[in-house]
Amino acid sequence: MNISLFTSKKYWIPGLAGLVVLILLATLPVYAPGYTVVMLTTVFMYIILTVSWTIFSGPTGYLSLASAAFFGAGIYAAAMIGGKLPLPMVIIIGGAVSFMLALLVGALTLRLKYTYFTIFTFGLVELLLYFMLWWEVNITGTTGRVVPSVDNTTAYYAIIIVFVITILIAYLIKRSKYGLALQSIGADEEAAAHRGINVTMVKIITFAISAFFMGAVGAIMASRWTYIDPNVAFNPLISFMPVLMAIFGGMGQLYGPVIGAAFFTLLREFLTSTLAKYEIGELYMLIFGIVLVVSIKYLPTGVVGLIQKWRKRLSAPKQVPVGK
Questions:
Q1: Is the confidence at residue 167, as pLDDT, over 80?
Q2: Looking at residue 46, what is its pLDDT?
Q3: Using CA atoms, how far apart are residues 185 and 167, in angstroms rounded to an integer?
Q4: Do 280 and 270 contact (CB within 8 A), yes or no?
């Protein structure tokens, strides 16, 4: 075994920093006010959604707008079985339902090329939204569902565990031959197929893995929101926010989507609370749009690209003027 792998600063410094952050997050409910715990739960919800979206769409270049469909599937799974099973089982089943849905959708759509795939995935969200509205009005005779709730601290710890697993899986996929196959598909799909990569199968499995975590976090949030309906579960905004967050943060490194999701979630919280005083709370979406346009114009590789550019400038050897 190569011991230098573990003694290299490249590995143990980020590992130590990550361990410190995890300890702080694990102990946060002990000393932080309840509002902070609730806010961070929402932050981690969007981080999980964004990282999950990046697992598939980042390397392949396929723009999926199905996040709300998988998130909503997890929410409705929790609504139907919540209270009958312990929370960990509810989370796993919520993720499994989304995983199976993504397998089916992927088998049907991932033979389509980029634009057609994007249109279909967004149509899936609308299809599920209106189907569930019809189902509840005509079959169950309800307008929503009450979900057995858990306290904010329990939801926070559950979402932290899912966050850690999501980051770990995303890292392992990125560093594996499987991740290399995904990058090959994104670079040139036909060339990847000629090299022996089962392009369709790789895309379907990755798509389903990313959906699992979206469904799992949906199940957690359903248990915290206590009341859900189709408009809450399949809110189209959930499909667009991870895309915006990933573009802003950058997809070159794993921490890019994390930065983007945390920044926009906190910005949304600040803007909605500030603008609500003037009864113009919905204007935050306009500000989001402006930030996105500016990011695409001046930060095409996101915050990650900017950080990497600064690192190169700092590490570049200084030019010593040659004397005459």
A1: yes
A2: 95
A3: 22
A4: no
